[in-house]
Amino acid sequence: MSIIIRWIGLALLALVLLFGLIQLVPYGHNHTNPPVQKEPPWDSLQTQELASRACYDCHSNESTWPWYSNVAPVSWLIQHDVEEGRHALNLSEWGLHEVEADEVPESVHRGDMPPWYYVVLHPQARLSQTEQEALIQGMLATGGGQSEIGEHEQDE
User: Fold this and answer.
1) Can you give the pTM of this predicted structure?
2) Are 50 and 127 in contact (CB under 8 A)?
3) C-alpha to C-alpha distances, 87 to 1, 15, 24, 71, nearest whole angstrom
4) Residue 44, CB half-sphere, CA atoms under 13 Å: how many?
5) What pLDDT, on the 0 to 100 scale, is given for residue 59?
6) Which DSSP letter does residue 71 get?
7) CB 148 within 8 Å of CB 104
């Protein structure tokens, strides 16, 4: 019995040491936001507010970095998501890079955006069905691409 307790203690010590060591890995600790260069020509304040609530943390240069974004390995995941999100669509650099803005309405319609794991920690990003539709229509009006959502719904 004491051997088992000793092994459990050593395993816990090893985990604590590993956790401490991974804090030294610099990736995921770069929480600086580049300056906003160019915002979309929002069709309405409602569209801008909905996008801000549900999209800006990953898809803009105005990310909010909560306390847990400083703790590895969570910081690595958050940094990766923000980098990937900004690469796909950056609402703070509108029109400056080739992006996949035409996929925004369809991603919101499918429920892919915002991702479920983001909404768990950021309940303000949860969009009602009405808010989803308003964001979709607002993004289309703002210039978020052409959508075939209506055609898809007719096919189903």
Assistant:
1) 0.78
2) yes
3) 54, 34, 26, 23
4) 11
5) 95
6) S
7) no
97: which 2 tokens?
Answer: 């890079």
For residue 112, count other CB atoms closer than 10 A to its CB. 11
CB 136 within 8 A of CB 51: no
Both ends of the chain: CA-CA distance in Å?
Answer: 62
Residue 138 contacts residue 43 (beta carbons within 8 Å): yes
Long-range contacts of residues 67-70, Cβ cutoff 8 Å, at least 24 apart: 69/28, 69/31, 70/29, 70/31
Give me the average pLDDT of each 10-residue run along the chain (156 residues).
89 92 78 91 96 96 93 92 93 83 85 94 95 94 59 40
